[in-house]
């Protein structure tokens, strides 16, 4: 409760007391009883009531979140040129009054949802796009009263600026801007661009009409039932195409994997064959070298010695030194002459 309301409350009690004393004086006068003391009290109360009422009507307290315009019967135009800022002020009682405007941001919502918009029912904006599609746009406009132009706002719109200015301008600008885009652009590639363009145009309109644009929010975009069904079918077809492409790619990768496995096996077989051939070649070369070395090391005495060793386990005959061979002839170790 501010001081103006307090004074007006006290003045109300003074008026009630004055009326009560008047009734008491009337009762005493009808009974021919003295009323001197009551008359004095009535005079005091009436003076206090008038003073308090006048002071209460002249003192104005403007809240921190308010702007105040003084409407006066004095001067030209009927409005003080300067608004009242927050705090305590004095106006001429009964000759001036205060009209209050909110200083805080205000939001006007255009929505198809019943419990979201200011207007009852579907208040979304119907827009025909550049490519002939019907879309429905939900949006919110956040704005404030310009504190430097609140007097002009009151002179122009009084308190009808929301219904008379904000709503029709928002609907008109949104419809005009959205109609410059195709439906695919609105919902994807150029949505942010469209939102910024709407905000800029609304800011210009509000500035010219003593308001300040704070923000514009593009809440939702809906399509007609026919277009929504077509979009759904298109998405289904795209998903099916993507699935088919995925299957083809999977089969291609499987075939490539099988080819690489077969190639690996073939390469392994070639490598194994090459290894076996090289091993056989090395083995043959080793045998040839061994045979060469063996041939170079053979002598008649060595051959006879090896021959005797091969017979030794089964020989039971005693050789007597002689020039004759009694048992078996030794192998001929002399090379044959052709």
Can you give a write-up of this model?
- Among the domains are: 3-101, no CATH class; 106-223, Tetrahydropterin Synthase, Chain A (2-Layer Sandwich), CATH 3.30.479.
- The termini are far apart.
- It is rod-shaped.
- It is an alpha+beta fold and 338 residues long.
- Helix 4 packs antiparallel against helix 6 (191-208).
- It has eight helices and eight strands, in the order H-H-E-E-E-E-E-E-E-H-H-H-H-E-H-H.
Task: From the structure above, extract its key features.
four-stranded antiparallel beta sheet, 338 residues, Tetrahydropterin Synthase, Chain A
Tally of DSSP β-strands: 8
- Shape assignment: rod-shaped
**What fold name stands as the CATH topology of the domain at 106-223?**
Tetrahydropterin Synthase, Chain A
Helix content: 55-70%
CATH architecture of the domain at 106-223: 2-Layer Sandwich
CATH class designation of the domain at 106-223:
Alpha Beta
CATH 4th-level superfamily of the domain at 106-223: Band 7 domain
Structural class: alpha+beta
In short:
By secondary structure, the chain is α+β, with helices and mostly antiparallel strands. Helices cover 55% and strands 17% of the residues.
Write the topology of this structure.
Layout lengths: L2 H28 L5 H23 E4 L3 E7 L14 E4 L5 E7 L3 E5 L14 E4 L5 E12 L4 H8 L3 H18 L4 H7 L1 H18 L2 E13 L1 H73 L2 H12 L27
Antiparallel strand pairs: 1-3, 2-4, 5-7, 6-7, 7-8
Helix pairs in contact: 1-2, 4-6, 5-6
